[in-house]
């Protein structure tokens, strides 16, 4: 489609002229993505929850919760509660459980937050004419979701949407990591790394203590069962610590260099004004450095959580 005012090119990548912050429909996208999977669309006026119905992603997200809850069970019921040192059990229990809650809350925020999806099907003649582009200016259309691609947006084949500043699609959070939920993903990797390191330390202390005394005095479980539970916990903690620590460092590097993982892999030359180091951190986490950066509940207004049928009638609201 070509006219004297603009040219439209079906391109999957490169650098469009539409700004990343431009709203293409009335209202914000985060306020109108309905529960319904990869084909969830934009519904003006209904503020509902973003959720991707991908089988692999839902299984991986469920496994993440199971493994964190398993670690909670072993730490609390195998190591801490049977212990004779009250203050040791209390302080370590409070620390570990608090970090686990923050990790799971960060996981939920990453999974249920719109990562910056571009509304589908907005590449219409009427909308393009409303942009009032100058002659010779070029905008890019995604042929897969029929939307005009903002700057630095990429199409996700799982979410079936173009995502602003898409870093990657992570099955462990069943969502893309993009412009609007990257901070929660960073917090998720940080808290998982912390509880993994804490679990390893507690396991080492527990083994050392139980070697000096009878195993029956260390746990309410039999020695064989206790050892198996602790060994599996240590293996889980080592794997999680390695993976999340590397991912945490990679994410911070990307934020400080204002370059997503996709842009790095594709070796895309920056056509935007880069936000370096602290400017990039402030852009992702919001505001000057503070403890709020570590709070996954920041900006959450949870008014009512009802059944999905009520949500589709507009009775439930989950605003982020």
From TrEMBL:
One Pfam entry for this protein is: DHHC
Highest taxon of the source? Eukaryota
Q: Which reaction does it catalyse?
A: L-cysteinyl-[protein] + hexadecanoyl-CoA = S-hexadecanoyl-L-cysteinyl-[protein] + CoA
Task: Write one Gene Ontology MF term.
Answer: protein-cysteine S-palmitoyltransferase activity
Where does the record say this protein resides? Membrane
Limits of the Palmitoyltransferase DHHC domain:
141-267
Is Transit peptide among the key words of this record? no
Offer a single GO CC term for the protein: membrane
Q: Where are the transmembrane segments?
A: 56-80, 86-105, 184-207, 227-248
Domain free text? The DHHC domain is required for palmitoyltransferase activity.
Family statement drawn from the similarity comment of this UniProt entry: Belongs to the DHHC palmitoyltransferase family.
What name appears for this protein in its UniProt entry?
Palmitoyltransferase
